[in-house]
Write a structure and sequence with these properties.
The chain is built from one helix and two strands. It is largely without helices or strands. The chain has one domain. The longest helix is centred in the C-terminal third of the chain and has 6 residues.
Length: 67
């Protein structure tokens, strides 16, 4: 679900290879309603927002190989 500037909400189905771009501060949520593992590659302009993902016990953050 993505909340638009006018407050309306848009729901999208995502499939392997789907890309979604969000603006900074744009409210959104992701739910895996399938039976397989959902893998998300999240890229941020600035560090910080990923802290919420690191705090989620159901989320595994994999660092880059050369980190």
């Amino acid at each position: 679900m993505i909340e638009k500037e006018d407050g309306s909400r848009e729901t999208r189905k995502v499939y392997p290879g789907t890309m979604i771009s969000l603006q900074r501060g744009q409210y959104h949520s992701t739910y895996n309603v399938g039976t397989g593992v959902l893998r998300i590659l999240a890229c941020y302009e600035f560090a910080g927002p990923e802290a919420a993902l690191r705090a989620d016990p159901g989320c595994t953050v994999i660092p880059p190989k050369n980190a």
